[in-house]
Specification:
It is a single chain. Helix content is 71%, strand content 0%. It contains eleven helices and no strands.
């Protein structure tokens, strides 16, 4: 800040401390400058200096793969993958694709009312993140239990959609949408904190990328599975096709609860 204004710099690069020059005659940097912090004390620069002294340092790509390989040899890594594949991905099924089709076709709701119901998922996202973090750190003092709690909430919401697909009232649709929004999105920061505490700060970048990708992969697969079950039920002439379409939500939420329960407790009360 200068004179009460934030200085963003060209291309909003003013806060990129790695590209502050501390040696105008230093080595050339990828940004076009010389002697930037990044090219003097960044990870690659330190690795090259260590290599010149005979210290074996893996290249960036091999370092990434070695980190991933080290995590993949531990069962807790796969438990977290399963949890992200089966719980946060559920948001894409109801709120991202099938919810509007279901409510319009089954109940004949107007587009505006359907939009309001689905918007409760976003409300759950916004409210659930601080809520689940608070529950984890202040009430339960446990990452694992907060993740299990979110999975159980998703299990109840998914079961309500599946078992009561043809008889849910509009107020209950609002509640279910909110419940899925909280359960699918709220505990994600708790999950990331678990990964950081379990695998350490060095691994957190690689782990976060993998976990985030798992959400989208799981969401895409779950959309396809729900769609296939819906088509099967309709072609078979079953009376409640949406019961089949939403059944995976409750089942996979139960799987996510088991995966979270099997994780070690990583929370440490700093008081």
């Amino acid at each position: 800040f200068a004179e009460g204004r934030m200085l963003r710099g060209a291309g909003a690069m003013a806060t990129q401390f790695g590209h502050f020059s501390i040696d105008r005659d230093g080595p050339a940097c990828s940004c076009g400058g010389r002697g930037c912090l990044e090219c003097l004390v960044g990870e690659n620069a330190l690795g090259m200096r260590a290599a010149r002294r005979g210290v074996p340092v893996p290249e960036g790509g091999r370092l990434l793969f070695s980190d991933v390989a080290a995590m993949a040899r531990q069962s807790d890594f796969w438990k977290m993958i399963v949890w992200y594949l089966t719980l946060p991905s559920q948001y894409f099924v109801f709120h991202g694709l099938w919810g509007a089709v279901y409510m319009g076709g089954t109940f004949g709701l107007s587009p505006s009312l359907i939009g309001n119901i689905l918007a409760m998922g976003a409300v759950g996202f916004i409210a659930g993140t601080p809520l689940l973090t608070w529950i984890s750190e202040k009430r339960l003092k446990s990452r694992r239990k907060a993740m299990v709690l979110a999975s159980l909430l998703a299990c109840v919401s998914g079961a309500a959609l599946s078992l009561g697909s043809a008889g849910l009232s509009v107020p209950l649709l609002f509640v279910v949408s909110l419940g899925l929004g909280i359960a699918a999105n709220g505990p994600c920061p708790v999950g990331y904190a678990t990964g950081r505490e379990r695998f350490g700060n060095r691994m957190v970048g690689s782990l976060s990328g993998i976990l985030a990708s798992s959400v989208f992969v799981g969401g895409a697969l779950l959309q396809l599975i729900s769609g296939a079950l819906l088509s099967f039920a309709q072609q078979a002439g079953l009376s409640q096709p949406w019961t089949w379409a939403f059944a995976p939500l409750a089942l996979l939420a139960a799987v996510s609860a088991l995966a979270a329960w099997l994780l070690p407790e990583t929370f440490v009360d700093k008081k």
